[in-house]
Description:
Blueprint: H1 4-33, H2 40-65, H3 73-86, H4 93-116, H5 122-141, E1 146-147, H6 151-158, E2 160-161, E3 164-165, H7 166-184, H8 186-196, H9 198-203, H10 208-234, E4 236-237, H11 245-255, H12 267-287, H13 291-315
Antiparallel strand pairs: 1-4, 2-3
Helix pairs in contact: 1-12, 2-7, 2-8, 2-10, 2-11, 2-12, 3-4, 3-5, 3-10, 4-5, 4-10, 6-10, 7-8, 8-10, 11-12
Amino acid sequence: MSNPGASSKITGFLGKYKILIAFLVLIIVISFMTPNFLSWRNIINVFRQSSIIGIMAIGATFVIIGGGFDISVGSLLALTAAMVVGLQSYMHWFPAMLVVLLVGAAFGVANGFLTSKIHIPPIIATLGTMTIIRGIVYMYTGGYPLYVDSEGFAFIGNGYVGPVPFPIILLLALVALGQFILVRTKFGRYSCAIGGNKEAARLSGVKVDFYIIMTFVMGGVMAAMSGVVYASRLLSVTPLAGQGYELDAIASAVIGGTSVSGGEGSVLRTLIGALLLTMITNAFNLIGIDLYVQYVFKGLVILAAVGFDSFYKARS
């Protein structure tokens, strides 16, 4: 005879720690399949490869928790990466970086305004801005790659602090900041409340439209920061930069346990989700599995994460 209480406890435990369990199981399986996987060099490589998507996924987490979706961030990465390179012909790289962060925030305001004030569904609003931004990228670059040779700027994407690459330090610092904002600030609490029940939050006196816009601003700023790291890492930008990155950022958040219906999520778990995706790609490359198979497997992982979340909510 089954024990409903024990079953409920097991379901609750799996629901709470599913991403961590999956992460640990994947590490164990891959380490048996590829002995070099747990080498220090490869671990650092996985973290560094996760830095650009991981930073973007921080912003995606806030947007999804607030009940929205932003598929324009890949194009925004391309625009800000191109701008931070192009502006260095006229100014030092640091003020150029500040300018592109403001550009990211401005597009976040635009996306949030279209969603909250004009009431365009988030995925449609950001589909429109995604197309507009990609067109601006082509106009800005003229369709040609842009290059930069600033050593100071190159440090952001290629520098080291001791044995640790600077992009990893930047990623971890932004994850810590994002988690603090989500858990300890009014902005974070209200974002969860709005994503959980927008009308209840409105009746409680929360300025719903303002905080929805702010979640998109967070998404825009993090996308711009990803653009800076991208340009610094490659020291060049093409008009095609960032294509598909928005899907990986959203997938990282969802795999990390951010509810697609809003109201629930964690920046720390999003980091694990980003690492999980990168580990899968890294392991498949080490094993020699074809790129097309990797896409299929990644899609199955995303469906499994969303399916488990939906099943767990239905059981609860």
